[in-house]
Amino acid sequence: MIKVLDEHERSMAFAEVALGQIRSLRQTAVPRNYEIWYVYATGYNAPLNKIINETLARNGKLTEADLDQIYDTYLSQIKTTDRIDKVGARVINEIDDVMSLITDALGMSASYDDSLSGATQKLSVAQNRDQVKAVVEQLVVSTREMRDTNKALEDRLSLSKQEISNLQQSLEAIRAESLTDPLTSLGNRKYFDRAIAAAVQSAAACGEPLSLLMLDIDHFKSFNDNYGHLTGDQVLRLVGMSLKQTIKGQDITARYGGEEFAVVLPATALRQALTVADHIRRAVMSKELKKKSTGEILGRVTISIGVSVLQPGDDVDSLIDRADACLYAAKRNGRNRVICEADPEYTAEIHSQVA
C-alpha cells in the first residue's frame, strides 16, 4: 500500500508541474502538450529538457511549431520504429543486390558449362591444328569471363559482409538507445524489468544468492523547487555517475523512475550487498553539488537505500516490494542510511503497514 501511495504522490507531483507549465505559458491542455511537460517534470529525457530551456530562454515561449518539433524529435515512438525500418530496408536491398549478382553468376556458370561441353564435342571432331586452336582460344575467353564474374562476386560479397555488419551495429545501437536513460546513461526502466527478471530466474535455477538495492534521492523535490529543474537534472546525473563509478562487473544499474534508482547484485549475499550499498551512499555524499550557472555551492546530496535478498518462493515483484519497504523505512528513520530486511526498522515498518 505504501508503494502505491508513493507512486501516486510522485505522479501527481509531476502532473501538477506539467499543468502549471501549460497554464503559465497559456498552451492548450491537449495530450501532446501534457506529455511533453510531464516528461519535462520527471527529468527522464535530458535532451528534451535542454531544448525546452534553451527555447524558453531565447524566445520566452514555445510555439505550436516548437512543440510539434520537440514531440516528434524527443518523444514520438515512430522515430525509433522509422530508424529500425530504414535499417531493415537497407538490409533487404543489400540482400536483393547480392542475390541478383549470384543469379548472374549462376547464369555465367551454366554458360561456361555449355562452352566446355561444346568444346569437348568440337575437339572430338577436329581435323587439324587450326580447328583445335580455335576451340582452345574460345575456351580461354570463356574461362576469363568466368574468372572475372567470380572475382566480381567475391568482391561484392566482401563489401556486402561489411555493410551488413555495419547495419547490424546500427540495430544494436538503436536497441541500446531504447534501453538507456538519456539523462544518466544508466539502463532505463525497460532495461531494469528485463534484467531483474533474467537475474531472478538465473539465481533460482543455480541456487545462488541475489540482492537488490532500491535507492532514492533525499529531498529531491526541494532541489527542483529551490533551484529549478536544471539543477534537479544535475543531481540525477551526479547519482548516476556515482553508481557507474561504484558498480562494476556483472552488477546491473538502472534508473527505476523519477529520483529512484535500482541496483541488481547477482551472486551477492546480504552482508556483501550492505557493503556495496554503503559504498554507494558514501560515494554520493562525498560529491559537492555546484550550480553550473552561478558556481554557487548547493551542498551535498544524500540518498536512502533499501536492500532485499532473494528468498525461496520469491518472484520479481516480492523482491522489489521488500526492497521498497526497506527504502521507505530508511526514509522514515532519518534518511541518508541503508536499511535491510534484517534490521528492526524494516520489521517496524512492516508492522505499521499491517496495522
Would you mind describing this structure in some detail?
With 355 residues, the protein is an alpha+beta fold. The chain is 69% helix and 11% strand. It contains 12 helices and 7 strands. It has helices at residues 2-24, 31-42, 46-59, 64-74, 78-125, 129-178, 189-206, 220-227, 229-246, 270-285, 316-332, 344-354, and strands at residues 210-217, 252-257, 260-266, 288-290, 297-300, 303-309, 338-340. A 5-stranded mixed beta sheet has the order 2-3-1-6-7, with helices on both faces. Helix 11 (316-332) links the parallel strand 6 and strand 7. Helix 5 runs antiparallel to helix 6. The termini are close together. Residues 1-5 have low confidence and may be disordered.
> In terms of per-residue confidence, which ranges show pLDDT below 50 for 5 or more consecutive residues?
1-5
Distance between the termini: 12 Å
**How many strands appear in the DSSP assignment?**
7
| Main sheet properties | 5 strands, mixed
The chain-level mean pLDDT equals 83
**% residues in beta strands:** 5-15%
**H-E order:** HHHHHHHEHHEEHEEEHEH
- The radius of gyration computed from the alpha-carbon positions, rounded to a whole number of angstroms, is 32 Å
Number of helices: 12
Notable traits:
355 residues, 5-stranded mixed β-sheet, disordered N terminus, 12 helices, alpha+beta
